[in-house]
Write a structure and sequence with these properties.
10 strands; 6 helices; single chain; Helix Hairpins; three-stranded antiparallel beta sheet; about 40% helix; Heat Shock Protein 90; disordered C terminus; binds adenosine-5'-diphosphate; five-stranded mixed beta sheet; alpha+beta
């Protein structure tokens, strides 16, 4: 008999990954008799950290590549915009209305591309962040106020449960607002027929690093949900299932939260909705964020 190693999803603890090691042995005083030592090791955290590292590497590679392409596209795109403006100048050229309309469309699309390029370059360059001690509940109140009308128009029922006494986090509030805007917009867009949006905060244990305390924001919707097949791709740059999507919202959000020492995760019941969780480290005076300027 040979030793064997097997990795599996735990049948007893859903969501846990475990490695089973089978070590056969023979009793020295009776070699006809044999036995087996079975060891079960919980590798859930190890696998999660590995997946994070693989994603981080892939993101860096993609960010560099896309920044190069974006940079190359920027100049010819400026020329297209410039020449379109020249043609639209009625003092110089006499255009029939149909041509003016087509040129208007060209200009609009060029503008759209340049906005996408700006997003790509922001994503690749990383942030010039301005971190400060912040209250996530207060940031959420302001963000939700901004979305209130759109939520109402889209026939979405909003619930908001900020946990009282939430510890502060050391973040760049503008960037966190950017992440929240992306998550809320995605949730709204997933509920074309209306539905429910629930936003809450909690003090929790990190889902990646054991023993670490985090402040978590949960954004759940009752929308289309995410198929099992798409689940692995949604944080990849340029992955989108939308007609007019750029597929950059989640990858940029992921990068921002990672730069704050946190993590974004998602769970979904396809057809019934999705829940995104943003975890950020609690500020304890000796913050573990990457920023060397953290006040002590
Ligand atoms: P975009 O919104 O431009 O598609 P994102 O990076 O923000 O780019 O999202 C990538 C994809 O993730 C979306 O196209 C969609 O398929 C999926 N997605 C994100 N959030 C949700 C959600 N709340 N419900 C369902 N699908 C979602």
């Amino acid at each position: 008999m040979e030793a064997r190693v097997l990795e599996r999803c735990s049948p007893l603890y859903p969501g846990k990954k475990e490695i089973l090691t089978f070590d056969p042995f023979r009793y020295p005083d009776n070699i006809a008799q044999c036995g087996m030592i079975i060891r079960i090791t919980d590798v859930t955290e190890k696998r999660k950290i590995e997946a994070q590292l693989v994603r981080a590497n892939r993101m860096t590679g993609l960010a560099n590549l896309s920044a190069g392409i974006a940079h190359e596209i920027r100049n010819p795109l400026s020329s297209i915009s410039l020449f379109t403006d020249l043609l639209l100048d009625s003092d110089r050229f006499d255009m029939v209305p149909q041509a003016v309309e087509i040129l208007g469309d060209i200009k609009e699309n060029a503008l759209r591309i340049s906005l996408i390029i700006k997003q790509i370059l922001d994503f690749a360059r990383g942030s010039g962040e301005k971190k400060q001690l912040s209250n996530l509940n207060a940031i959420l109140v302001e963000t939700l106020e901004f979305w209130y009308q759109r939520i109402k128009i889209n026939r979405i029922q909003l619930e908001f449960y900020p946990v009282p006494g939430l510890p502060k986090v050391y973040v760049d509030p503008m960037q966190i607002v950017h992440v929240l805007n992306n998550l809320i917009l995605n949730a709204i867009e997933s509920m074309e027929e209306g539905g429910g949006l629930c936003v809450s905060t909690s003090l929790a244990k990190s889902s990646v690093i054991s023993g670490r305390e985090v402040v978590a924001i949960h954004i759940s919707d009752t929308g289309s949900g995410i198929s099992l097949e798409d689940m692995d791709k949604i944080f990849d740059p340029f992955f989108t299932t939308k007609m007019t999507g750029a597929g950059l919202g989640l990858s940029i959000s992921y990068k921002i939260i990672e730069e704050h020492g946190g993590i974004i995760s998602v769970e979904s019941d396809p057809g019934n909705g999705a829940i995104f969780t943003v975890e950020l480290p609690v500020y304890r005076g000796n913050c573990s964020c990457k920023d060397p300027d953290v006040p002590r």
